[in-house]
Amino acid sequence: MLREPFSYLPSNESPFTSSLRSATVAEYEVARDAHPEYSTGFNDPNFLKTVARAEGGSFEVFKWNTFESKGILPAIVVRNHKAGTVNNVPIRYIGPIVDDPKTLPTTLKYLGSALATKLIYFNRASFTPALNELDLPQFTEKGFQTYDFTTCVLPLDDLSPEGLPMTTKPDLRRKIRQAKNAGLMVEDATEEDIKVTLPRLMKYAYNRSGEEVPYAAKLPSELWNSMHDKPNVRMVAARMGSETMAVLVALADKDTIYSMWYARSYDNPDLDNFVILESTIGHVAHEAAAAGITKYDLGGGTAGIVNFKQRIGAEVQNFPVINYTHPFGQKVKTLANFANKLSSLNAHIHGRQ
User: Alpha carbon 129 to chain centroid distance?
Assistant: First the structure.
């Protein structure tokens, strides 16, 4: 049963109390339970703390109550000589929780100003597909940068033995069986898979597209150390003999499992590149369905990746991402860069003494 939304705010609290205040993780969990449309595997406080630690920042929770809205904000705060950003990480569905989504344009504007008093000049808010009906032009009018991102959701209510929807083409399912007969095996990932192999595979995948890996270098190791044994976290690896062909990490919440990473090797010419991913995703989908989970959020990607996910039965859904940079943001960044140079110069001078 859902608990009372924002019960941490006394009923007699004055709406004039508009200052942003610290909240507890327990208060955040109350809001998550009351508003499942905002809650995903990526909103697990343990996960958010892990991401913050890997980014060299901190996980904080803020609450507010104004005339326009009241709510709570999970915040991955990363500072550079006191100037900071909130939730500026490449992970979807991290943003504020409010009673009424119609108040979000005003709420995010308020948060931008309130966070600025804490020298936080940039705030990123990403919402689930359940909130895709937000009127993005309203945000643009208030000075936000808005984006319509794509994710792919695999229904798990009618799966084949290969872990893919029964509507998937028989030829794809046959290839998975052939790969399994050839020796491809999906099993629990090891510490080395997550800490060593996964970063290597991700680097290769991003570099093939001319991009840098957007995640903090420490994140795979931090995630293993803090969460590999949690019941809502799944880490698996696909192998041919002793060779690791793919690594997948996913987090579950309520009726959905969410893909964090999957990266594959291109080193085995005997296997269809996509069969490796199909086999790994199918394995996790089959496990999740057996545990009562009904959806697998696979994330988005390039047009080619989205097309691949559609081929295995996923449905494309959109979700909004809204960024806000405070007007003084550029000045703060300039001062922070100057402070960095000054700090480096001081270290250099002291090092020569």
Answer: 13
pTM: 0.88
Low-confidence ranges of the chain (pLDDT < 70): 1-18, 268-274, 329-353
User: Residue 126 CA to chain centroid, in angstroms?
Assistant: 9
pLDDT at position 83 is 84
Q: In which region does residue 324 sit, left (phi positive, over 0), alpha (psi from -120 to 50) or beta (all else)?
A: beta
Give the Å distances, CA to CA, from 6 to 11, 17, 33, 97, 98: 10, 15, 10, 10, 9
User: Rounded to the nearest 5°, which phi and psi values hold at 266?
Assistant: -110, 20
DSSP 37: G
> Which of 289, 225, 249 has the alpha carbon at shortest distance from 54?
225
Strands (DSSP E) along the chain, which ranges?
21-22, 58-65, 70-80, 83-86, 97-98, 120-126, 145-155, 184-188, 233-240, 243-253, 256-264, 295-297, 315-325
d(CA 305, CA 101): 31
Q: Give residue 339's pLDDT.
A: 63
Please check whether residue 126 is in contact with residue 319, taking contact to mean a CB–CB distance below 8 angstroms: yes
Q: How far apart are CA 113 and CA 325, in angstroms?
A: 10
What residues contact 317, with CB distance under 8 A and at least 6 apart?
A: 129, 132, 150, 151, 152, 153
Q: What is the pLDDT of residue 80?
A: 83
Q: How many CB atoms lie within 10 A of CB 306?
A: 18
